[in-house]
Amino acid sequence: MYLSKDEERMLVGELGYAAQKAMEILVALGKIYDAERLIPIKSAHVSGVSYANVGEDGLEFLEGLASDGRVVVKTTLNPAGMDLERWQLMNVSREFAENQLRVIKVYKRMGIEVTCTCTPYLVGNEPRTGDHVAWSESSAVIYANSVIGARTNRESGISALAAAIAGRTPFYGLHVEENRQPTVEVRVPQPKEELEFACLGILVGRLVGDGIPLFKGISHAEPDELKALGAALASVGGVPMFHVEGITPEAGRYTGKITDRITITESDIMGVKEEYACEAYPDLIFLGCPHLSLAEMERIASALAGKKVKKNLWLCCSRRVKLEADRLGITQAIEAAGGTILCDTCPIVAPIRDLGVKAVATNSAKGAWYSRNLNNLCVKLMSTEECIREAHSSIPYQTESYFYYESTP
Ligand code: F3S
């Protein structure tokens, strides 16, 4: 792999410990993927923030990097294991909270913005079409590639951090125009709401693996709907990017690589919802996976207006979106109805089983998938409106045993 003089100096340690480690990681990656060189990046987004995932070994590694390492491009951070300011609301232990704050401090020392959100594109990390970036967090990666038209591979937290410190990433995969072509054409009926976009994502993600689908048949889609579609697509498989004919920026630019054609029906889409039909009483209903946009917060506030929820309702968003919601009176409306707004975190990266949660309801297909497969929870997948109705109801879905579990597929 070709390295410039500066890159060689980094690699031999002339520019410090962190730069050397970063370069070692990037060169190793480049060799694995046959990259001919490194390319400069405009921004990075780093996952691996929850102390539940980082642990003491990870923290030690990060502290080593922070001894002399600083990021050289705009770099944002994925959600942590708790709301950094109101962690008591989540009942996480003081010990966990202190350790989580240690992780945050180390990232901050490296110059990373403590955004703690999986929607960096809603909090100022907004690449332009064609920009090369190094993002981790699969839902953010797929949004950047597909909806924004920026170029990033599905980085791990470590490789995104290395790229942020070095300001570069290996030139391979989705940085190369040719690799951004769709591989599977997917004919679909127009999804009617966000949940249907999300279910479609789960379904197609399973079918195409790490292929790139080109959707045909969708005549309109809001950014939040594409957010839900992408998050679901990327959660079940390795899909790094999708195209929607007539909507996403690179759809129609190329069609030479399509090898498969799939047709999806409405009942296929709704079949996914039926797979997540937990009948246990939900300890928690959560919305905001990926983190809610201001428009979504606004819609939820209107749906909650004048009512009082009877079950735990968590709404997860970035602190930036919450500040906007505060300013517009949205926060007050949600909290008056008994909803809890949490920033910096989500029920997937938080130590949710330690909090005694066993059954959840959500409108997020990604959230449903991880709640079941990672956190081993009983999950009900519902539309936003159904979730809110459920939060208002004092009656469980059906009176089954509280300790009912679905089997993991
Ligand atoms: Fe974001 Fe957590 Fe979902 S990081 S995409 S809210 S799993």
UniProtKB/TrEMBL annotation:
One of its GO terms (molecular function) is lyase activity. InterPro entries: PMDh-L-like_dom. It comes from Candidatus Terraquivivens tikiterensis. Component of a hydro-lyase that catalyzes the dehydration of mevalonate 5-phosphate (MVA5P) to form trans-anhydromevalonate 5-phosphate (tAHMP). Involved in the archaeal mevalonate (MVA) pathway, which provides fundamental precursors for isoprenoid biosynthesis, such as isopentenyl diphosphate (IPP) and dimethylallyl diphosphate (DMAPP). The keyword Lyase applies. This is Phosphomevalonate dehydratase large subunit. Residues 1-389 form the Phosphomevalonate dehydratase large subunit-like domain. Heterodimer composed of a large subunit (PMDh-L) and a small subunit (PMDh-S). Belongs to the AcnX type II large subunit family.
